[in-house]
Design brief:
The complex is a heterodimer. Helix content of chain A is 52%, strand content 14%. By secondary structure, chain A is of the alpha/beta class. Helices cover 42% and strands 18% of the residues of chain B. In chain B, strand 11 and strand 12 form a beta hairpin. Chain B is globular and about 55 Å long. The interface between A and B is large, with 43 and 38 residues.
């Protein structure tokens, strides 16, 4: 069983929801990313989504675009992201790490070799935003062969047939994009989420995380009341952007802990 | 709409031209692309749709555009005869409007009240703003701030036509970033918005659909050139950024095996300097950008690199997937000409023919001017003069040290 599946099983047994923060590797610089990942865990993260910066992040809003530009300006690359994961694994052998990014850096490294290299570095899952399942069949097979989970996105306008197709290709969890838009947008429709998630979970037979547009602990709690996992990205990246370098880890940890506490109120309910 | 498809089965049902093309987008766009594909499959065979498209091309765009024999220029070069397919005479001044009419008619039938577009040189933005006014759509055009600075007249034209021009500050602030931003808009407003993509790139069905709307260029040439010269040309030459005018003129000639097809990319300051926009000529690796797999200018880590060209319309790191395939298959050949060569061709056409060409089209012309003197007088070079150069006055004047 994968580290991701183990994590969801444990949380389910505890009646708790997964908290999945997202940061961009190399933002603000490579040296700070590993300590920041440990801070996420200390604050209560169950899984870390680590963004692989790309020059043309089409699905991302301005906050994550800026983070990607900062990381790339300091020389971040997919190979160096894997170095970061290796360094993180020295102290943390438990917390699953999912790389989230775009197809081209993976294809530049070699889509056939990447899953194996990533698995050996300590990566648990990959989410390639611009790889819909039917476009990456061979890649998905390599990801499985390497023992990793491939996480796919579902959108508010995805059909029920699409839930099935995506669920068949993916494993670990599904990532439901909570709004029509880019990351960090601010018009999330909680009623729509509450209506869709139970159906997706039934059809997909795996945990469903919700992300895009979750900006505070209260919304996280409301989303957590229907979903298995809550993904928070842009809001944390804003915290990184707004903090002096020596306060970044502490500020991010405080923010994540605030969300954790709210989310765990659901466990007692 | 396209009869040669029987002999040339690309793209396949999944939108691939050999290994290139496909649908590489975030999940939110998948239903929108499926809706678009279904609508296009229906209307491309619909007699009323085709009739309306042809009516608009004739009465609004002013088609057919003539094929003009550039006699003085040909005389001066002392070799092959240069023929110009005059897309510059179209309403709005370039070939871009052909595709915009087609997509606008589709948007109308799909009930989308809002259209968006990306633009580099501004020609596609102007053409989109124009058809939006013509058909009563709300219109938003994304344009990199670098290009806005180079193309102020076109920005004003779009505003006159009622479009909102949104400056794009991210990345290299050129066409590729405008495309990213248009995609982001589409993801956000997918239910009421039609994305009028301006070139033969993007996710399936765009490369095929834009091609089909642009093949009017080549289909006209197929009858026009024999009417003047009694036969088809020896070579067809067109500039390639994304490559829509080139596909438009090449595609109907694909079954004519004796006709050489030559795509001309922007060599910028020279291929050897790395400061260019020529993914095919420089043998760039395949990769995924803007919804399709194609040849892409990228670094060893798969990051898209900045491109350079004096012409904003060619300043793009990728190329339409069908061009990548035509290159691999050997049916078309691709070369590049520098900024300086394109500017020389620009001035030559002004001087010898009284035609001010777009800097993009000047690249195709420059290649024809290189080839003509090496060929016989009875050989025919058909050049796609994809647009007029009014928009480039500022750039050319600045290069010549003149300030308005």
């Amino acid at each position: 069983m994968s580290r991701i599946q183990t994590t969801f099983q444990r949380l389910q047994a505890e009646g708790r929801k997964a908290l999945i923060p997202f940061i961009v590797a190399g933002d603000p610089d490579a040296e700070l990313t590993v300590p920041l990942m440990h801070s996420l865990v200390a604050g209560g993260a169950d899984i870390i989504e680590l963004g692989v910066p790309f020059s043309d992040p089409m699905a991302d809003g301005p906050v994550i675009q800026r983070a990607s530009e900062r990381a790339l300006a300091k020389g971040m690359s997919l190979a160096r992201v894997l170095d970061i994961v290796r360094a993180f694994r020295v102290e943390d052998a438990v917390t699953p790490v999912v790389l989230m990014g775009y197809a081209n850096p993976i294809e530049a490294m070699g889509a056939a070799v990447f899953p194996d290299v990533a698995g050996k570095a300590g990566v648990d899952g990959v989410l390639v935003v611009d790889y819909p399942p039917e476009q990456c069949v061979e890649f998905t097979a390599s990801v499985r062969a390497a023992g990793l989970d491939q996480i796919f996105l579902l959108a508010p306008n995805s059909s029920e047939q699409r839930f099935r197709d995506v669920a068949r290709a993916g494993s670990g969890y599904l990532y439901y994009v909570s709004l029509k838009g880019v990351t960090g947008a601010a018009h999330l429709d909680l009623d729509e989420i509450a209506r869709r998630i139970p159906r997706i979970r039934t059809v997909a037979g795996m945990p469903v995380g919700v992300g895009f547009g979750i900006r505070d602990a209260e919304i996280a709690k409301q989303v957590g009341s229907v979903a298995d996992a809550v993904v928070i990205g842009s809001r944390i990246v804003e915290e990184i952007e707004a903090s002096p370098r020596d306060r970044i880890c502490a500020n991010v940890e405080t923010f994540v802990r605030g969300v954790r506490v709210k989310l765990d109120e659901l466990a007692g309910a | 709409m396209v009869s040669v498809q029987q002999q040339y089965p690309f793209p396949d049902a999944q939108g691939y031209f050999g290994p290139y093309g496909g649908i590489f987008v975030a999940e939110t766009l998948m239903p929108a692309l499926e809706e678009l594909r279904t609508a296009y499959e229906t209307y491309r065979k619909d007699a009323a749709f085709i009739a309306e498209f042809e009516h608009e091309l004739k009465h609004y765009v002013g088609r057919p555009s003539p094929v003009y024999h550039a006699r003085r220029l040909s005389e001066k070069l002392g070799g092959a005869q240069i023929l110009l397919k005059r897309e510059d005479i179209n309403h709005t001044g370039a070939h871009k409007v052909n595709n915009c009419i087609g997509q606008a008619l589709l948007a109308k039938r799909m009930g989308k009240p809002r259209v968006i577009a990306e633009t580099g040189a501004g020609q596609h933005g102007v053409a989109t703003a124009t058809v939006a006014a013509r058909f009563g759509f709300r219109c938003v055009v994304y344009m990199g701030t670098e290009d806005i600075a180079r193309q102020t007249a076109n920005v004003y034209r779009m505003k006159l036509l009622g479009a909102t021009v949104v400056p794009v500050e991210s990345g290299s602030r050129t066409l590729k970033d405008a495309l990213n931003e248009a995609m982001r808009d589409w993801v956000t407003n997918v239910s009421d918005t039609f994305y009028i993509l301006g070139t033969v790139a993007g996710p399936h069905p765009y490369p095929e659909m834009v091609r089909d709307f642009q093949t009017v260029i080549g289909r006209e040439c197929l009858t026009q050139v024999p009417e003047i010269f009694g036969r088809q040309p020896d070579m067809v030459i067109a500039c390639v950024g994304g490559g829509s005018n080139a596909i438009g003129i090449f595609h109907p000639y694909i079954p004519y095996e004796n006709v050489r097809l030559i795509g001309v990319e922007a060599a910028g300051e020279g291929i050897e300097t790395g400061r260019h926009s020529a993914p095919l000529t420089s043998n760039a690796r395949a990769g995924v950008l803007h919804g399709n797999r194609t040849r892409l200018m990228q670094d060893e880590n798969g990051q898209i690199v900045e491109t350079h060209s004096v012409s904003a319309g060619l300043d793009y790191p990728g190329v339409g997937p069908e061009h990548a395939w035509l290159k691999d298959s050997g049916r078309a050949e691709y070369v590049a000409v520098t900024d300086a060569e394109a500017l020389d061709a620009f001035h030559a056409l002004c001087h010898f023919e009284g035609i001010i060409p777009a800097l993009e089209s000047s690249h195709a012309l420059a290649q024809a001017m290189k080839l003509a003197p090496t060929l016989l007088r009875d050989q025919l070079l058909l050049v796609c003069l994809s647009g007029r150069g009014d928009k480039d006055m500022h750039t050319v004047a600045e290069r010549s040290g003149i300030r308005f």
